[in-house]
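Below is how a single chain appears once it has passed through the pipeline. First comes the sequence as given, then the structure the pipeline wrote out for it. We keep one example in the README because the format questions we get most often are answered faster by looking than by reading.
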Amino acid sequence: MKKSEFIAAVAKEAGITRVEADKVVNAALSVISSTLKGGDKVTLTGFGTFEVRERAARAGMNIRTKEKIRIPASKRPVFSAGAVLRSSISGKKAASKGKAAASKNGKGAKPAKKK
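Resulting structure:
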């Protein structure tokens, strides 16, 4: 889906014009970008989290010349999908946190004794 198609879908879903949806989508993307530039992360509960991760400087190799090169440190934006988004895509229900979930999947439970 391209950005223009996304804007049209948002306009249809929200019952607003494409011009209004364009302003809203661009404003949301601008807020996310400026927040990430400021060093903070953006969490949309259930949907996911946008954050900036730092990548350390490291040694690399030019594959053509086999010469060792130094790759400088960098920052990159990352999106981590939330539980609701993951479960909606996979078709599975999101597991609830707590003792009930731990006992259902066997994690945290004591192993059965063998006789």
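The chain is about 40% helix and 25% strand.

See the next section for the split statistics.
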